[in-house]
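A.,

Following up on our hallway conversation. Structure tokens first:
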């Protein structure tokens, strides 16, 4: 039977219509492309005027001219969902000689009510604005574009700060990523339950916002003949100075607005260390917090920055400048790391001897080393809304040896300071912060890309990027970057080891992704280029197996998937799954010795877990061994990964899924039963995403009944994830990043793979992966679905279009392959339930 269902998913957004006028998503307007940089713009769909941000009674926006004055100083703009890019606005008229306006950004509406928006994000540079507010001083009509990217926001305000009036039109963002509405993507999903369509779309938008094309995120430093022009941002730190200490670092600087900023004794973890800001006596913006950033002063702190966000820095120390520092004048600033403090002078006059006393409690081995107060590199970055030139940097050791010298007039320095334009197409853990390339989070992202945008090339680029940073020799041989910066370069990797390699199991997630890539594409030829590197990484992971337990345990390793515990179930089971998948790759590459080895290793890991970590009292796998004994706690990933690896048998899987009840708190599942219940208990979408997929595997591969898995799926799909959809003030059209530590949009691929039912499966006879159309109808029915329709992108182009419906126990379905030759799909759908 032909199903009369829409080709487009127009209804997808119906559930997101609130208030007046919000009737469509921010519409991309495409202009001709120039170079590799996009010319697409995102414009608001609705606006409101008032004395404060407004969420209700917004009016439709279409380039509308809006006048701000002292009675209505705040313009609120709603883009309907997360967009990203360079903010711009056109001023058509203004009164007075100069008008100051402050632009503010936030993903959630509430961020607009905070002084700093939903930021700042002062932890890494991220090739974006580190701040979520930016002030402009407008003197003539015309269009202004910010120098910096704002990485993800649904909401914006424009606030008039001066006692003038200004008329603004054509406000928006010049795109830094291409984000298209879900109904225009190659992949799509539409079901008889609108909420599921919305959940699918969260991942489709999140991957578009956080996967960036090569060279699309420009450097945040501008190199000129007068040195580097550096606008207020999180400082970039040199990769070349981590080992030096007790030196004098000097540079020439010319402030063009507000102040200049620099570091010494900065560590490999994003430059955590001493930070100084020298402000001028020039004009300050009305938005400047004069208490935190007084003019004509030296401000000294230790940590990330002079203001706190979710990680704290030492309370800043303030010193009045002994002579006025002027804008647009050159000065020579030097900082000597002495036994008693940082000795700072400007043009040979001492400005401060900053004592270490109040900084010492903030020395953090996790962010650098215990000697960080006097040892570490140097860096540059003025504070918010400031702008300064920096040139002729010189570092001289205690014994008078010149350690470093650079004129700062060549773009060669950008990667050294972590601020080079991104050379590779990569996926960030989140579009807004911290904008690093976390390879663990990518395990979900890769599968979301495959079912939504079909951008398999991003997966390939991520694999290429990650292997480019692999250590091929030395003590870390085999290890790949797990928390890389877009702005760095492979030649500097060793500087960041081990500081930026804190989660050992992210290496396992990368192995998993290599196997997932093969599952999705069957392209052994692509993986053959990295097969030597893959084997070297597996070998590196094998060194972490404790010989007495056969489990992953090593004092130098840390396991994210087991809350840092050793001899734990989840990371060991994750390794087992990775090895099973890589054994299939090995066979495809005719490396049969390796295939057999990986299969045997995986079997041993499985045995080690079952003999030591199955806990009959809990009816679940213990999270880990404690003092050699299985402990009394269990965790979501202990269940999810033993199921995915097939380590759990049918009765263990059944019992482990039932035992998840103990982890349910309010609306979702806690990572572990050792975590208490409180207002700050985190319910991770990343972790629950792995659980979501494993429940379908428990049913399809381990014979766990629908009665057992459906209640848990119901909690995840009908209770937990819909929180991201059904609250207007928090809705962003993408999965939440500000609420928890990592992106988690697993419903996107799980709904396509198991509810629509189109996925890749291994044919046990041929050893090849192929497409199946095999919806898990009993579960779909258990979740109350009566029909599903969707498209699934194919590697190499084209898509599979499929649908099914159940009425009175009769199943109807259709399946087509579009725009592709020779793609076989094994249709396994029954005609009756
Ligand atoms: C704002 O400017 C108007 C005239 O343009 C003046 O009458 C008023 O006193 C000013 N208000 C403040 C707070 O400066
Ligand atoms: C704003 O621009 C005007 C005109 O150029 C200038 O006089 C004023 O100092 C500027 N204000 C700030 C805070 O930069
Ligand atoms: C900060 O100082 C400047 C001039 O020194 C002033 O115009 C501005 O209003 C002050 N800002 C605040 C928030 O007090
Ligand atoms: C500070 O030193 C620079 C040279 O580094 C010189 O050009 C400038 O005139 C000096 N400024 C003052 C106020 O002495
Ligand atoms: C700090 O530098 C000044 C010169 O600017 C010098 O006179 C003083 O001795 C130095 N102090 C220390 C503790 O090194
Ligand atoms: C001076 O110090 C540097 C760096 O610590 C060292 O490499 C060099 O050998 C030293 N030179 C002398 C002459 O002691
Ligand atoms: C598989 O990977 C190889 C090597 O990168 C590439 O040349 C080829 O085009 C890929 N195959 C497909 C179908 O894209
Ligand atoms: C793998 O081989 C490639 C090409 O020969 C080489 O560039 C790369 O460094 C090798 N990787 C390892 C881990 O040995
Ligand atoms: C698996 O475990 C057995 C028994 O402990 C051992 O003999 C064998 O070498 C192990 N296999 C691998 C590949 O480590
Ligand atoms: C793993 O467990 C074994 C057996 O209890 C113990 O000897 C070993 O120290 C543990 N490893 C770590 C890193 O805690
Ligand atoms: C699931 O049931 C099928 C059919 O009864 C059986 O062949 C298979 O071995 C079972 N699988 C497991 C893991 O128990
Ligand atoms: C399903 O059952 C209902 C009620 O018994 C009936 O009205 C409807 O026509 C049936 N649909 C089909 C496709 O048989």
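Then the amino acids I'd put at each of the 833 positions:
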């Amino acid at each position: 039977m032909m199903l009369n269902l829409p080709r487009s998913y127009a209804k997808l957004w119906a559930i997101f219509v609130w208030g007046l006028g919000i009737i469509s998503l921010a519409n991309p307007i495409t202009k001709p492309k120039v170079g590799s940089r996009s010319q697409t713009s995102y414009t608001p769909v609705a606006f409101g005027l008032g004395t404060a941000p407004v969420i209700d009674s917004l009016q439709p926006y279409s380039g509308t001219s809006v006048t701000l004055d002292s009675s209505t100083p705040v313009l609120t703009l709603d883009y309907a969902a997360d967009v990203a890019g360079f903010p711009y606005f056109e001023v058509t008229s203004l009164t007075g000689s100069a008008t100051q306006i402050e632009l503010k950004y936030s993903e959630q509406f509430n961020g607009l009510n905070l002084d700093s928006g939903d930021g700042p994000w002062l932890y890494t540079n991220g090739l974006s604005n580190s701040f979520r507010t930016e002030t402009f001083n407008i003197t003539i009509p015309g269009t202004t574009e910010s120098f910096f990217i704002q990485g993800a926001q649904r909401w914006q305000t424009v606030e008039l700060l001066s006692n003038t009036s200004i008329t603004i039109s054509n406000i928006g963002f010049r795109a830094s990523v291409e984000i298209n509405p879900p109904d225009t993507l190659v992949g799509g999903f539409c079901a008889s339950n609108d909420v599921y369509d919305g959940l699918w779309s969260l991942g489709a938008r999140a991957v578009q916002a956080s996967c960036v094309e090569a060279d699309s995120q420009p450097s945040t430093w501008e190199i000129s003949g007068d040195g580097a022009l550096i606008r207020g941002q999180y400082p970039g730190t040199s990769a070349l100075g981590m080992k030096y200490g007790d030196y004098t670092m000097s540079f020439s600087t010319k402030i063009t607005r507000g102040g200049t900023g620099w570091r010494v004794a900065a560590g490999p973890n994003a430059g955590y260390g001493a930070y100084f800001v020298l402000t001028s006596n020039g004009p300050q913006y009305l938005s400047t917090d004069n208490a935190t950033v007084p003019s004509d002063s030296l401000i000294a702190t230790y940590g990330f920055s002079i203001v706190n966000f979710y990680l704290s820095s030492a309370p800043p120390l303030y010193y009045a400048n002994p002579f006025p520092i002027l804008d647009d004048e050159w000065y020579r600033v030097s900082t000597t790391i002495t036994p008693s403090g940082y000795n700072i002078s400007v043009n040979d006059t001492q400005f401060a001897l900053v004592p270490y006393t109040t900084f010492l409690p903030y020395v953090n081995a996790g962010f650098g080393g215990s000697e960080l107060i006097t040892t570490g590199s140097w860096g540059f970055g003025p504070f918010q809304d400031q702008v300064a030139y920096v040139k002729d940097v010189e570092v001289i050791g205690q014994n008078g040896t010149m350690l470093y010298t650079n004129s700062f007039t060549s773009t060669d320095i950008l990667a050294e300071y972590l601020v080079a334009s991104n050379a590779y197409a990569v996926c960030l853990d989140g579009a807004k912060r911290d904008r690093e390339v976390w390879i663990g989070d990518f395990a979900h992202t890769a599968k979301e890309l495959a079912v939504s945008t079909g951008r398999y090339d991003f997966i390939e680029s991520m694999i290429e990027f990650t292997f480019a940073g692999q250590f091929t020799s030395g003590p870390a041989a085999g290890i790949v970057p797990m928390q890389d910066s877009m702005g760095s370069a492979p030649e500097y990797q060793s500087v960041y080891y081990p500081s930026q390699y804190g989660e050992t199991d992210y290496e396992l997630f990368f192995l998993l992704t290599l196997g997932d890539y093969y599952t999705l594409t069957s392209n052994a030829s692509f993986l053959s280029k990295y097969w030597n590197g893959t084997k070297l990484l597996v070998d590196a992971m094998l060194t972490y197996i404790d010989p007495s337990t056969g489990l992953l345990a090593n004092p130098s390793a840390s396991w994210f998937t087991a809350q840092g515990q050793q001899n734990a179930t989840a990371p060991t089971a994750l390794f087992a799954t990775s090895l099973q998948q890589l054994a299939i790759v090995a066979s495809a590459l005719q490396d049969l010795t390796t295939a057999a080895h990986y299969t045997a290793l995986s079997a041993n890991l499985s045995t080690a877990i079952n003999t030591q970590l199955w806990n009959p009292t809990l009816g679940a796998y213990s999270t880990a061994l404690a003092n050699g004994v299985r402990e009394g706690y269990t965790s979501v990933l202990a269940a999810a990964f033993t199921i995915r690896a097939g380590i759990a048998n049918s009765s263990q899987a059944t019992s482990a899924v039932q035992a998840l009840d103990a982890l349910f708190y309010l609306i979702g599942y806690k990572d572990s039963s050792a975590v208490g219940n409180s207002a700050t208990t985190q319910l991770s979408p990343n972790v629950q995403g792995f659980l979501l997929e494993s429940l379908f595997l428990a049913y399809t591969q381990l014979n766990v009944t629908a009665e057992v898995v459906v209640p848990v799926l119901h909690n995840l799909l009908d209770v937990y994830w819909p929180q991201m959809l059904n609250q207007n003030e928090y809705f962003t059209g993408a999965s939440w990043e500000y609420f928890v530590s990592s992106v988690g949009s697993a419903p996107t691929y799980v709904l396509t793979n198991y509810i629509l039912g189109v996925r890749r499966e291994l044919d046990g006879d041929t050893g090849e992966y192929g497409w199946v159309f095999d919806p898990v109808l009993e579960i779909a029915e258990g979740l109350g679905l009566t029909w599903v329709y969707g498209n699934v992108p194919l590697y190499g182009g084209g898509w599979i279009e499929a649908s099914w419906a159940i009425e009175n126990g009769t199943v109807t379905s259709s399946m087509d392959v579009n725009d592709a030759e020779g793609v076989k799909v094994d249709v396994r759908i029954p005609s009756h339930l």
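The two ends are 16 Å apart (CA to CA). Curious whether your intuition agrees with the design.

B.
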